[in-house]
TrEMBL record:
Species this chain originates from: Desulfofundulus australicus DSM 11792
Broadest EC class assigned to this enzyme: transferase
Record has Repeat as a keyword: no
Ranges annotated as spanning the membrane: 33-52, 59-78, 106-124, 136-157, 177-205
Subcellular location: Cell membrane
Protein name: Adenosylcobinamide-GDP ribazoletransferase
Length: 251
């Protein structure tokens, strides 16, 4: 289990904690700890927010949070998001879309999508009330990364090869159940707001995964990253109105 956790942490962050040989099965089961790693990232962002609170104005803090989110994850999901935007909006055949997504060069749709995503993320981090933001920062990345586990476990892989194929092969109902248990406990710390966001994310992730599958014949590592980024922004967006009417505690 420790090897699986180490691989999960290393895959989703810039922390290279696993130095052993590549273990296909451990890597394939790594998604089961994605919500826990998401919580780790969220706590790191919360610490960053608190450290900067008395030093800079809110717009600067929001900018540093966006930068911190990208830096700690190594830009992995942002890269997948851009590739997915380039492929999906190319209007080409299924095979051509997959080929475009594999291309290391970024196209106009990828750049435009990234700019819109980061601007929206910045605006939401700037606008959310302090109390809600402090409660949400640890929760949101855990839920969005659980969304990737759901997509991996419940939808087919579009390519005949690739590292993502190992995760589809080894991440099944048991791994999804473990990840779901983790994310439920994490969401409970946000009270009714946290539970509402978790339920909303399930609907969104299922819809996104079905859409990508209909266009590509399955999912890829890039679409997992896109699902994470879209879910993250959606949760912040939904939290803005919901935080005004739902309590941050269950009692």
């Amino acid at each position: 289990m420790l090897k699986i956790l180490a691989m999960s942490l290393q895959f989703l962050t810039r922390f290279y904690v696993y130095r052993g040989d590549f273990d296909e099965r451990a890597y394939g089961r790594a998604p089961m700890f994605f919500p826990l790693v998401g919580l780790f990232l969220g706590v790191a962002w919360t610490v960053l927010y608190l450290a900067l609170t008395h030093l800079f104005p809110q717009p600067v803090i929001a900018a540093f949070l966006v930068l911190g989110m990208a830096t700690l994850s190594g830009g992995l999901h942002l890269d997948g998001f851009m590739d997915t935007m380039d492929g999906i909006f190319s209007g080409r055949s299924r095979e051509k879309m997959l080929e475009i997504m594999r291309d290391s060069r970024v196209g106009a749709f990828g750049v435009l999508g990234l700019v819109c995503l980061l601007l929206l993320k910045f605006a939401l981090l700037l606008s959310l009330p302090r109390e809600a933001l402090l409660r949400l920062l640890p929760i949101v990345p855990a839920i969005s990364r659980w969304g990737m586990v759901y997509a991996i476990a419940r939808f087919p892989y579009a390519r005949a090869q690739g590292l993502g194929l190992f995760q589809v092969q080894y991440t099944g109902s048991r791994e999804l159940a473990a990840a779901s248990f983790q994310v439920l406990l994490i969401a409970l710390t946000g009270g009714w707001l946290g539970l509402s966001l978790l339920f909303a994310s399930l609907v969104l992730v299922h819809g996104l995964a079905r859409y990508f599958t209909s266009r590509l014949g399955g999912l890829t590592g890039d679409t997992y990253g896109a699902i994470n980024e879209i879910t993250e922004v959606f949760l912040l967006l939904a939290a803005y109105p919901l935080s005004k009417c739902l309590p941050l505690t269950l009692l």
